[in-house]
Predict the structure.
Amino acid sequence: MEALAERDDTEALLSECLIFHALDSNGRRQLASRVKHAHHFAGETIFSAGEPGRSMMIVASGSVRVTLPTNGGDEITLADFERGAVLGEIALLDGRPRSASATALTDCELLLLDRTAIGPLLRSNTRACMAIIEMLCDRLRQADERMAIAGPAPDC
């Protein structure tokens, strides 16, 4: 009975996500059956820049910070994500290493979807594909705004 309740919760969370909101209930049910669950404690590294990216994540509870390491050894905070947010999608989509790092700000539960679950979904569902493109474009615009605020790099 607990597995059924967990699957129902997973389907409900998928319906809240912009990307998966485009799916019908049958599509969300099928996707929910392929989700893996992960728990991370506050302060725990979820993934690091440069690691292989085989899955994307949806925050089910808690919050996650995504950062980018600088050449000087510091970190730039790209975003903080809470329930319903999707992260890790870039490496999943392009098959290249992670472009950023993610750390649990609080204890959190994540839903993991690997390439084998997402690839067929995007190939067969135009609305879901467009939703992920829109999300990527939105994040690119946010990155552009952060760069504009930061101003030009100092002369060396």
